């Protein structure tokens, strides 16, 4: 029989749930294991330091099913570890972090059931895109050592592309292939990639251009790195791309233009899971579709009123907006001068929005954001996007702009900048990254982002600018904002139409979505629905807070309640806003 006090103490410790401070250690250890497993992630956020980071910066994440399933097993391991903790012993932030990690890891496990339905080569997010962006966009190039690491990773691009092509072959044999128009778009992009001489390929030009700013590199060294990179592209990268091109060309004759997931036996289940993941709700495809129809009707009514005021009274809203967009195009959209001018205009808009945003937020990001155009081979199918800065601040955040003629217009440019940079994605993501109250795995988003909040916040930022009068005396700019909101409402209709209602690509285009966007929704089902579902929830929560707090409501504090919580599913955002309401004294 145990009698010594130390024995009783030991039994008490064994019977007591792990204390709150121990969960921080668990988060730290598991996140490190997760990042260590994915070199591309480690490089993009620069998660480690010293020899460990150095080792990872000479690797590229595998493109194999074996690697993917090992990642799933790691997620399952993480879920088992989380079961050891008792919510009752945790703070609100720790509970949120635990629930977030559980939600994200469960999403990884759930997606594993449907891996066959996502082809590894496509024009938007396939290996043919991701491998290039891993180096040209996210690899640091500030030191001579970074150059050496770049060249080491470049040697792996060809082998990784071959892995992706090999993984596509079983899907081809199962007839789980993309629609013909996706194959054609992907082939056009891949052919454009291998068309120029190696020295003019983005994998080489990006290295050469960025290396010019590195001190201590001799002219001989510059010539040598260009020679080595060009040689690798010629001997390894281009052959791997041509092998993939040959595979896609071989299946093109047997492909069809059926667009949605409905074409597969388990398509409805796959789409249901995708909607749940991207909206973080249990809304059905039918419900999302109807929400979209309602929002389209509302926004078109508002647009018609503004169009009437500026004398554009004839024709449908769509026809009048199409003509307005043409009228606001840059002179000769394909000229170098126009391309340079739009980037200059974006820089000015970012600076202006930063000043306007200062009174609206208790904290402003310390990190900066810069704008740059997409490389030419990606312009035709790319969507404007935001890429966060790494944790160590070795490069700024980057807003990428596709400079194809259809986007070379002043209509909506301001709104696009507000969404992608300030006060949109840059504020939401950078403030999370710089928030010391959050564990590192959340600051670095090592388990991924959550579109419903991130894209919902971006769309909320667009609406906020309009509400606060940023478009005063600029009715065309206001129409650009309404047009962008309408685009997101139409996305709800089109995404669900494509994947649940058997819409064709042409039906989606006829509904008012440009072809490259329709093709994006086809290969990334459900993601397009996250924007408006997220925005509507944020507006609902803001209205609730304003209604319950009355004169005590503060827009700045509401923004803090949302952004200080970090990236979470919408249900956790709602809990954070409810805590803000409860903590605010009312008369």
Walk me through the structure.
The protein is mainly α. Helices cover 63% and strands 2% of the residues. The protein is built from 25 helices and three strands. The chain has helices spanning 5-15, 20-36, 39-45, 50-56, 65-82, 92-111, 127-136, 144-173, 180-194, 202-211, 219-251, 267-279, 285-309, 317-327, 336-357, 413-420, 425-433, 440-443, 451-467, 475-500, 505-510, 515-523, 530-549, 555-563, 570-583; strands spanning 369-373, 385-387, 397-401. Strands 1-3-2 form a three-stranded mixed β-sheet, with helices on one face.
Could you list some keywords that capture this structure?
25 helices; 587 residues; mainly alpha
Order of helices and strands: HHHHHHHHHHHHHHHEEEHHHHHHHHHH
Give the biggest sheet: 3 strands, mixed
- Report the principal-axis shape: globular
Euclidean distance between termini CA atoms: 61 Å
Summarize, please.
The protein has 587 residues and is mainly alpha-helical. The chain has helices spanning 5-15, 20-36, 39-45, 50-56, 65-82, 92-111, 127-136, 144-173, 180-194, 202-211, 219-251, 267-279, 285-309, 317-327, 336-357, 413-420, 425-433, 440-443, 451-467, 475-500, 505-510, 515-523, 530-549, 555-563, 570-583; strands spanning 369-373, 385-387, 397-401.
Note the topology:
Layout: H1 5-15, H2 20-36, H3 39-45, H4 50-56, H5 65-82, H6 92-111, H7 127-136, H8 144-173, H9 180-194, H10 202-211, H11 219-251, H12 267-279, H13 285-309, H14 317-327, H15 336-357, E1 369-373, E2 385-387, E3 397-401, H16 413-420, H17 425-433, H18 440-443, H19 451-467, H20 475-500, H21 505-510, H22 515-523, H23 530-549, H24 555-563, H25 570-583
Parallel strand pairs: 1-3
Antiparallel strand pairs: 2-3
